[in-house]
Amino acid sequence: MLMGKPDLLDRVAQMLVLGVGLFALLFGLFMIIRPLDWYVAIPTVITTGPPNQHFIRDIGIAYAACGIILLYASVNIHMRWLAALAGALWLSLHGILHIYEVSAGICSPDAFIADAPGVLGPPLLVFLALGILFARQHIAPAGIPKAVFLKFANAEAEESERQYHDAIAAAPGHALEKFMHFLPASTHRHEAPALLFHAARMGANMVEDCGPCAITCARWALADHVPRETVNGWFKGPDNLPKEEALAFQFGQAIATQSADALELGDRIEAQYGRAVRFELAMSAAMVRSFPAMKRGLGLTKACSLTPLEV
């Protein structure tokens, strides 16, 4: 999942989807508003037979609908990747139809080549954008097939973590899908420096005394490019941490213990880093507690003292 602001490749993926969305919407509006002008504007269309304004508008509506869906997806492509996939579906099927027609001899290779950039190009660009995000694991987990999610979630997990994931997957009422929607909220980071963000998460997590949960929390920090020696230092508590890390760690602890110190620590963080950073640290520190709390309810917790706390 994406933590922090989108980088260049994320923006490239977003712009690809945005560009295809604008193309599909404007192309569809052209067909809807001026169907006969569209008919004569595309040279290869004339060879398919006389114009039918109703059918041209039907196709225009499909293009416009795809464009609207893709524009919606482009606003937050990391969370709305399924919408991008849906927006590219009809465009892809349209492209497959063109491939079938040229392979079956229904249309000429020259016509296919002339149409290919406008027919095959748009869906391929959307799939390229999604490929960039999937390759970098910068997508929300909601929508990923259950078996795929469990394979990745359990790949390096401790036994109690695997049991925890499997219990959620086995629960009725699409519990796992709802859980996957929750995960991005618990790791929301946009303005906060990674070091402070994960220190606050770890401070809150350590209060819960769940060793496997602490290791999972540490792995999220490593994935967000926090140095390994820094993360391992958090397992020992805030006493020997640098001042800024200790402040964030203690803020997370205070939130988890419902201490009145959270107010003063939060004020210090806000004065130094701004309201947005305080919000992100508070939100994640509060939400990260839900994982060990749920494991405790399922009887799957394992104390920190029984777990080698090192990554």
Structure report:
By secondary structure, the chain is mainly α. The protein has 2 domains: 8-135, no CATH class; 187-306, no CATH class. It has helices at residues 8-33, 35-41, 53-75, 81-103, 109-119, 121-135, 146-153, 159-170, 175-186, 194-207, 211-223, 228-234, 243-256, 261-273, 275-288, 290-297. The longest helix is centred in the first third of the chain and has 26 residues, at 8-33. The radius of gyration is 25 Å and the shape is elongated.
- Helix segment count? 16
Number of strands: 0
Q: Which radius of gyration do the C-alpha atoms yield?
A: 25 Å
Mean pLDDT: 93
Shape: elongated
What structural category do the secondary elements indicate? Answer: mainly alpha
Task: Flag low-confidence runs.
Answer: none
Order of helices and strands: HHHHHHHHHHHHHHHH
Helix content: over 70%
Into which percentage range does the β-strand content fall? under 5%
Count structural domains: 2
Biggest sheet: strands, sense, closure?
A: none
- End-to-end span in angstroms? 20 Å
Short description:
With 311 residues, the chain is mainly α. The protein has 16 helices and no strands.
Keywords:
311 residues, mainly alpha, 2 domains, 0% strand, elongated
